[in-house]
Write a structure and sequence with these properties.
heterodimer, A: 301 residues, Alpha-Beta Plaits, 11 helices, 4 strands, 75% helix, B: Rossmann fold, six-stranded mixed beta sheet, four-stranded antiparallel beta sheet, 22% strand, globular, binds adenosine-5'-triphosphate, binds magnesium ion
Chain lengths: 301, 255
């Protein structure tokens, strides 16, 4: 009990030594804005990363075999043969011949009535699903197997269609990571400036403390505490605002009902990573303030 | 006046002193500010632990500059300064706080922290030394009463008269029970009566073993302290009338 009272009294005395009420200066607000943008960038980066992964997992194991044979009878025979062969391959989990009638129905809007006439050679399609893992090796192996059967067989892995999209998302993710890094540097710079200003503004007090035998570390601690608290305040505000925006965006995403957008969901590890940001911000501010003040003090006698 | 002393991180400084040993030693010390000619030249003297010393000289003679060297606010341009038996000129920065905590200073311009109350200003040395809050109140209140400001504890320096500020500065300088008390014109802003009271206070501290160094223009004040010795600065050079403070003593120099 006594200890607690003492500590609170000591903290109050320290606070009186470097006055100026909190939230007065621009520091907490700048940190709040930085934190807001950092959390949003990080969330975007993590979300894109998650999307690329889930898209990849989803599509890597899917492919379509096309049977490009003009003769309808031969096409049907070849399709049956391929289906039967595919079913015997152990890493092919599912084989699903696409119903020609359904296919014609799908392409009717583009090709018109001719599509149904049977005179247009439409390839037969067989959707397959592979067991998970080593998708590329399996696709390669499968392509060679099909080539031995007939030159009229083509294998289209689905991942290939979305390759450019995944590439784009992945670069956007890196961009977001870059922004987080720049934000961190900028926050550090702001803290260094704030600490320097605080140090200069309190030169008189610092000189007196020095001549009383205060150590550099004691004096630096005064500043790092204050700036750390400012950063905590700003960081908490920015983080809360960012979470609010993310929650609203999430609700919007769900409302679209899109399957692709629904994959943009953050696993709990990503949320944990986001929660680390304000803590890291406060640590960064404290360390930067301490370093700056110690450096300035080192130039005095 | 009697309260616990808790040394903080900076720790105490090694050697222990008997009443007769030299607590301050200057040898051929020179001080030059920037590129100007020397403000202080060939300063040599030694002060004994438990002594009472006055430093006089015309305005601009270099009294404050000499005291600054003594309380480690300034490094000399040449010469050797020993405090408590250790050379402080070549001392690394990180060892300075330990020495400074053993020296109390009354600055000529007081240097009270403007946003702190009289009470908090006086408590500052104890807080710097790491004393726990619950042990601070008694000595600070006692000190406030001692300088006759018992009812002005919560006043800011700006609301105090010059003499009251000076007394706060003195209280702050002595509260940590320093081994050396350095006072730069400590009676410049008070009437003759208060000046006498403050000198009586310094003598009391001196009797408790504190070495006292006071810079002043006030010659009647010097006469009041019979046991005191005097150093006189004349345009940056020591010219004490007796030569007894010189180090090494004059007769040895002249051989
Ligand atoms: N920081 C400084 N930079 C440059 N010159 C200085 C500095 N401090 C003092 N001086 C010069 O050194 C000389 C001595 O000054 P000092 O303050 O030591 O005199 P003093 O004896 O204390 O005078 P006073 O009785 O008026 O207080 C003066 O000429 C002053 O201009
Ligand atoms: Mg002076």
């Amino acid at each position: 009990m006594r200890m607690g009272v003492d500590r609170r009294a000591a903290a109050a005395a320290r606070h009186r030594l470097l006055p100026e009420g909190r939230v007065a200066g621009p520091m907490p607000w700048i940190v709040a804005i930085m934190m807001f943008l950092t959390v949003l960038s990080a969330a975007a980066g993590l979300g894109l990363n998650a999307a690329v992964h889930s898209m990849g997992d989803d599509l890597a194991g899917r492919a379509t075999v096309q049977i490009v044979e003009a003769n309808g009878e031969q096409r049907a025979r070849l399709a049956a043969l391929v289906t039967e062969r595919l079913r015997r391959i152990p890493y092919v989990r599912a084989v699903q011949p696409v119903d020609p009638a359904a296919l014609i129905e799908q392409i009717r809007p583009w090709l018109g009535q001719d599509a149904a006439s049977g005179e247009l050679p439409i390839p037969a399609l067989i959707d397959i699903e592979l067991t998970s893992g080593q998708a590329e090796a399996k696709i390669d192996h499968l392509r060679r197997q099909l080539a031995t059967l007939s030159p009229k067989l083509r294998l289209e892995p689905h991942a290939a269609f979305l390759q450019p999209v995944a590439g784009l998302l992945s670069s956007l993710g890196w961009l977001a990571a870059g922004i987080v890094l720049l934000m961190t540097l900028a926050t550090g710079a702001v803290v260094v400036l704030a600490a320097r200003a605080a140090h200069d503004g309190h030169r008189g007090t610092i000189d007196v403390l020095h001549l009383m035998g205060a150590t550099d570390v004691q004096i630096a601690r005064l500043f790092q505490r204050r700036i750390g608290l400012d950063a905590l305040l700003g960081g908490a505000l920015g983080f809360a605002m960012a979470l609010l925006v993310l929650a609203l965006l999430g609700a919007r995403l769900l409302a679209t009902g899109s399957e692709l957008l629904a994959t943009v969901q953050l696993p709990w590890t990503s949320w944990a990573l986001l929660a680390v940001l304000p803590v890291g911000g406060v640590l960064l501010a404290t360390v930067a303030a301490r370093w700056t003040v110690l450096r300035s003090l080192g130039r005095l006698l | 006046m009697c309260h616990g002393w808790q040394t903080g991180k900076a720790g105490s400084v090694g050697a222990h002193f008997s009443m007769m040993s030299a607590i301050v030693q200057f040898e051929n010390v020179g001080l030059r500010y920037g590129l100007d000619s020397e403000t202080l030249s060939d300063i040599s003297f030694s002060l004994h632990a438990g002594g009472f010393y006055f430093l006089t000289g015309a305005s601009g003679a270099g009294k404050t500059s000499l005291l600054k060297l003594l309380y480690l606010a300034q490094r000399p341009s040449r010469g050797v300064i020993r405090l408590f038996g250790e050379d402080v000129v070549t001392l690394p920065r990180k060892r300075l706080p330990g020495f400074r905590r053993r020296i109390g200073v009354v600055f000529q311009d007081f240097r009270l922290v403007p946003h702190l109350s009289a009470y908090d200003n006086i408590a500052l040395p104890l807080r710097v030394a790491g004393m726990v809050e619950s042990e601070i109140d008694a000595p600070v209140t006692e000190m406030l009463n001692w300088v006759g400001l018992g009812d002005r504890g919560q006043a800011r320096p700006a609301t105090l008269s010059g003499g009251e500020q000076q007394r706060v500065a003195i209280a702050r300088a002595v509260i940590g029970r320093p081994e050396i008390l350095v006072a730069d014109e400590p009676t410049g802003n008070v009437d003759a009566d208060m000046a006498r009271r403050l000198m009586t206070l310094f003598e009391a501290l001196n009797r408790l073993g504190t070495t006292i160094v006071v810079a002043t223009h006030d010659l009647p004040l010097i006469a009041q302290v019979s046991a005191a010795q005097m150093m006189k600065l004349d345009r940056g050079r020591l010219s004490d009338p007796t030569g007894s403070l010189r180090y090494p003593p004059r007769q040895q120099v002249s051989g």
